[in-house]
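Help!! Second protein's tokens look totally different from the first
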Amino acid sequence: MKKTILNIEGMTCSACSNGLEKYLNKQKGIHRAEVNLVMATALIEYDDNLKIEDLNKMVQGAGFKSLGERNDKKEKRNELKKIIIFSILGIILMYISMGAMINLPVPEIIYMNKNPIIYSIVIAVLSFTFLIYGFDIIKNGIKNIIHKMPNMDSLVGIGVIVNFLYSLWNTILVFQGQTQLVHHLYFESSAIIILFVKIGRYIDGKNKNKAVDSIKNLVTITPKNGTILKDGKEKTVTINEIEKGDIVVCKPGEKIAVDGKVTKGETHTDESFITGESKPVTKKVGSKVLAGSINYDGYIEYEAERIGKDSSISQIVNLVVEATNTKAPIARLADKISGYFVPIIFLIAIISFILNLAIYSEIDKAILSLVSVLVVACPCALGLATPLAMVVAIGNCSKRGVLIKSSESIEALKHIYTIVFDKTGTLTEGKLSIVDGEYTKENIKILQSLEAMSNHPIAKGIVNSDMNKNFYEVKEFKEIPGKGIQGNINGKTYYAGNQKLLNEKNIKNIYEGKELEYSKKGESIVYLFDEKEVLAIVGLSDKIKENMEEIIQKIKENGYKVIMLTGDNETTAKAIAKKLNIEEVISNVSPKEKQDKIKEINKNNSCLMVGDGINDSPALKTATVGISVANGTDMSADSADIILLKDNMNLILELLNIGKKTIRIVKQNLFWALFYNICMIPLAMGILPISLNPMIASLAMTFSSLTVVLNSLRLGGSVGDVPNRFKMTQKGTDL
């Protein structure tokens, strides 16, 4: 199964995106399709035997245009000029048609009462130019009706055409001598409706672009060119020409072209575009460098390792874009409402026409009510309510060094009650070193040789303890999650792990007293043993992360329950927990047991799990929301819903605040969109003492969408810590 994101042209409201999504999900070979109105994209999972061209045809079959995987859409630079020109024409049109009503001087040759035929021709021609200007709206509306997916354009298009044709019929009768019908020409309504819709979409488009700017900017982070060494000489090439293994040169002030490893030189780089941390990072031989980071002050050469789609920034862009294309449960509710909205509006418009005709016996009043209902109804606001808020929130988080992999995660943050922390590398720095132990020089070399094969923080601590420079070759290496590792050195099998692994292999522990002694100091314990006996024991010490005590306290003050869940022994875990004032500790658990504990917690309350290791992956996947911290393993990052790119636990509080604020904004958007329609549609029907004409209705529709857009953009500001007003009176209740 493959996955892609296509750029779609022609979507104007939620009815469009919902219709296309339903159509694609019915197509053979497509497993899942999610269409994003704000980003104008479709996330599609499909069979391997299908090609992008096949997907493009499916999109076309639904009445839209696919621009493929690359967004080739260009902003219409002359759109503002057109709006200005047609606004001037609109003012002229309104002056001619209504100037006399408010005693403004109108030239006699186009005055309706003195020259009705010339007047009719002038306003008909002027209005027809607006129909040409808005032909895309009319065409799209009719096309979607044909495809049985009526949308906002369908409502506006039908309303404009009905109004224009009725006015045109009356114009013909004026030509035949019924000059009194000159007062029943409503050409200007069709023209002004189109003008207001165009102005509204232009403003909406500009504001929506602000929402996706942070996402678009990610794509431009990497430079277009790089310098490689070829036969000892520097050669400037495009990024696409750099191949894995090439030696790339980067001088002060330049950007790193591709991900790689420094082979020569030393410098400081700015990686704030990924981590959000402005502090320069020291790079020397052996250090990793990231594409897009800025070289401050040194000359370096580095070997290209990850290029193109495999680079860190490309993966981040893909994660962020995919996240904006997923749908939160609240968005699916809005989609469901929008799916019924347009057909219901058509029905209400017809009922309005019939009622006005029956009550007032005036065909023009009945037609105006029909047009007003069609124009004032606004599924656009409903469609934008959720996705726009999600796009702003996800884009804002990406700028702050937080990758959110799905919109569902943002909504889930609102319901979190319990926060579960792994210990090593999460609450502590994960930079352990051997501080105690019983071992020989040979045994420590064997232990370090084994641990050099692992990526666990404890393994790194053992390896980085400067005791041996050269390690033995390890064969048949195997990770035993939650317990330790094993490997063959010089034909003999050795194990390195905790008390659980000792018990599993039925090896007598001759160092129980030492384990208790080291554990009381808060040290992590590792044994080295073979098939017969324990060979060594080491105790590793770790530092609690800076400000972690304050962060835990602040989390608890905001009403969240905090639990430590670790595979380390009980004595060590409780020693760390005591320093952090964490009352509940679950220790000495395997990855499977961690997962089971998370399942148990989730039965009663939604929980958030924070971890960084391979042994955290099942628990991260099981939690309501899983967060992988900076420098976590690839597997834990894959299992997590959210990835912190900088090592700052304060971001957890910010995330919880973002989740609450985003859902609050979405609910406000949905309320105002529904409230607007509930208030405006009865007025547009014309059966109440107060009524709307089509021009005012189109202006009101524009303000409805604009309200939702501007409200969503409030999420784009800085997001601080969770305000201290989250008081728990029962499970997860926000009062």
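Here's the second one for comparison:
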Amino acid sequence: MSITAPYGSWKSPITSELIVSKNISLGSAFFAGEDIYWIEARPSDGGRQVLVRRTLDGQISDVTPAPFNVRTRVHEYGGRCHVIHDGVLYFANFADQRLYAQKIGGDPQPLTPEGELRYADPIVDAARRRLICVREDHTQPGKEATNTLASIDLTDGARQAVLVSGHDFYSDPRLSPDGRRLSWLAWNHPNLPWDGTELYVAELQADGSLGTAVLVAGGPEESIFQPEWSPDGVLHFVSDRSGWWNLYRWAGGQVEALHPMEAEFGLPQWVFGMDTYGFASAERIICTFTRNGVWQLASLDLRTKELTRIATPYSDILRPDVKGNQVLFLGASPTIPFCVVKLDLSSGQMETLRCSSQVEIDPGYLSLPQVIEFPTENGQTAFANFYPPQNKDYTAPSGELPPLIVHSHGGPTSAYSTAFNLGTQFWTSRGFAVVDVNYGGSTGYGRKYRERLNGQWGVVDVNDCANAARYLASQGLVDGARLAISGGSAGGYTTLCALAFTDVFKAGASHFGIGDLETFVYDTHKFESRYLDRLVGPYPERKDLYRQRSAIHYVDQINCPVILFQGLEDKIVPPSQSETMFAAVRAKGLPAAYVPFEGEQHGFRKAENIRRALEGELYFYARIFGFELAEPVEPVKIENLEMSS
């Protein structure tokens, strides 16, 4: 028989220990020779990223030994920083940012010298015995880093040459199959890659330098994504020139659309290596695309331009790597965590090689998402994924409605998916309702929807989060007197703004969130240093907007408790942001808590800190909303708590 207990107080088998001890994050999977490789990020190992190998006979083993961490700091967010050629792995190591060479089965050996250079997105130029990669130069203290495309000699990594320079940013260097042409993406401040990029091609000269670069596509208002050469040497890419990220090719000097549709075949390029398609042959692409928040796998015939869906049980399908009739991808659904999946296109047989979670949860504890479209400002609608409370062992008292946690995603150019997330189930299995809001500015709904946030960050996102909460309360699905908002990074900014500029929420949790936009302008890294030009306005010309949209200047309007979590080595949102906000809220006499983490950067990777953040937020809500926890957790010091009661 079920136990009657207040929402929030339910005992759940989905504990913070379970989440960190049996969970990893999976990075891109790829074929190399007869073997399959993928990246695992392991919270139980301090967040270390490890390259893992699966041999033809099914044996799985680590390739990169401890303490090596396959992770670059180019753009600070990193991404793909490894490549395998002729049985040798080349990778960037996080601790020193040097490139290493490692024979598979051997030990890593430093390739590049010590210094202030960082490397990402490497490819092997076999004919010239070199790597070509994105290089980020930090050798001039106090000045902005310099990004270029550079070559690295495979025999002597100190022998480096700049191949392409002059733009603020680069990504995706790709050699044509015959090794005679190089393509790449470039863009300049104030753009981010989803705003506008340029696709170039140049001939390689006899000495390895590049000839005159030809602009193929792109510009300040056209985002190009993932250029790739087909096996027969035709350049393909994704462009949003139609308003949607669709597939194109460049042949005979002309750009040709392959299958126009109102769907997204691209993603915001926050990290390197965010692929969405690959070639099964010169005549066939295997691709992924999203529409209305659901990802699908498909085959595109390059002769007829016919797109054929490939059935899978997954609603999230990311980073496909294709080798003939074999496809590797990361797949997930509301009930399946992200897994490395191998698909045989001939037979349709799928094999799960590795899952991000080894936890098996009884379905009676799992909340399934309900995709909602709700009314918001200016007669528009926005989108969200709603998760009602679910725990087979408990029933709430008659007439009680659950507290709601509104989740505001980071980026802010990003989006929530419906993929299985133990972090979400942590809350719903305890009796909370959760709504993941894909506010205006989110990706997956076309460029026009993405551009709703231009000049309106701190307005559109805040309104959409508030209206999602109001909508659910008006439908009788949640308790309108117990609405909380929580978010990390840009989502933390939205959280703080929602607390300052609306009266909807009764509590807020900011994870490394931005409190002062002006500080962010001066105290962040190169990649995002001009991000706010589009999202808010040029600075200092629109300094007034920066102050109007910064919660730190409107603490007098915050009338509810706040908890802040912060990594002390965060270079993207420095600790000063959270510390200043905490001091201001505390000084006002509101309940306030601040939880700093030594050794953490932007986002928490260590198991003990992930646990502390989850349990700390739960403890905070229990004290603020007045319910008892089913099990004791380490308390968080909440200033002014007695004064508010």
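Reply: Different proteins will give different token patterns, so don't panic. The domain at 3-15+361-644 is CATH 3.40.50.1820 (Rossmann fold).
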